[in-house]
Amino acid sequence: MYPEIRMRRLRNKPLVRKMITEYSLSPSNFILPIFVKEGLEEDSTPIESMPGISQHSLRSLVDECHQVSELGIPAVMLFGVPKKKDAMGSEAYNPEGIVPTAVRAIKEELGDRLMVACDVCLCGYTDHGHCAPIDGENILNDQALELYAKASLEYARAGADIVAPSDMMDGRVGAIRNKLEQEGFQDTIIISYAVKFASSFYGPFREAAESSFGAGPKDRKSHQMDPSNLTQAFREVELDLEEGADIVMVKPALPYLDVIKALSTRFSVPLAAYQVSGEYAMLKAASQNGWIDGKESMLETLLAIRRAGATMILTYFAKEAAEAVK
Ligand code: PBG
Predict the structure, then answer these.
(1) Which whole number is the average pLDDT over 268-296?
(2) Is residue 1 domain-resident?
(3) How distant is the alpha carbon of residue 279 from its chain centre?
(4) Which pTM was predicted?
(5) How many CB atoms lie within 10 A of CB 151?
(6) How many distinct structural domains can be found in the chain?
(7) Which of 276, 280, 282, 317 has most ligand 1 atoms within 8 Å of CB, for mutation?
(8) Tens digit of pLDDT for each residue in 128-147?
(9) Residue 224 domain-assigned?
(10) Are 162 and 75 in contact (CB under 8 A)?
(11) Which of 131, 245, 252, 286 is most exposed, with minimal Cβ within 10 Å?
């Protein structure tokens, strides 16, 4: 015989719910990804598949960063949209390119009030849309490493606090870390997109970054992880930590909560999760149709990602969520 079991005792009053809360959200958990487009004049251009998100001009980028910082969000992640693309993605590592220029503009105004992270990859800068140079159907892993290192160095020189290689080539974290050390940037943080799956949830990002496939393979399956694997994620993280990553990331987030959980119990480094463009678009579309509550579903997914073990979340909801929880 037991006394009557009543879980309700712990739920039926707001204060008791507050008292027993295990996981919560704070603006400091979020990083906002931002697209900055070369040659855009004053205004920003909305991205159709990501309601509420725009490509920014340098001016609107700085305004956006002011708002982000005032909301208590510690960092933004910059993606550049260059004017011209070529086979080697040379605008990615041009010191006068859009990203270094944007970093300088933000740092000039905001200094240490906002950290600037830069996505490091070539896919937004190559005319074939791949993350590395290609030869026919082959992705040239080793030829890309020096280019990522050069790009990272230029971003660090411009004042970036964080570089975040997202290409999934082997050896890139080591190449970047060595270059940064050689050039005196010992304090630059590397967030590695260590566990990045070949996912269909990156769809809207193609519009945002103006990146689509031309020549070469039609997917990224030769270098991004297969969604049918978990244990490979451990190996990816081990390698990136050995090579000098400070923070590792899982991407996408919601379909891979089990991966986040497994990594968070196994490794003692801060873990980031990227709630990607397709996750954002899905929630926005359903809420705009009135099928789900936008704010509640946003907070529920973010909380789930935190509960799984992510310390920080890259999310296009960063501003909206910060406003909702502050
Ligand atoms: C570039 C990169 C991608 C994303 C971030 N960095 C696209 C891809 O790898 O195919 C996706 C981000 C998003 O969907 O929000 N390597």
Answers:
(1) 98
(2) no
(3) 13
(4) 0.96
(5) 30
(6) 1
(7) 276
(8) 999 999 999 999 999 999 99
(9) yes
(10) yes
(11) 286
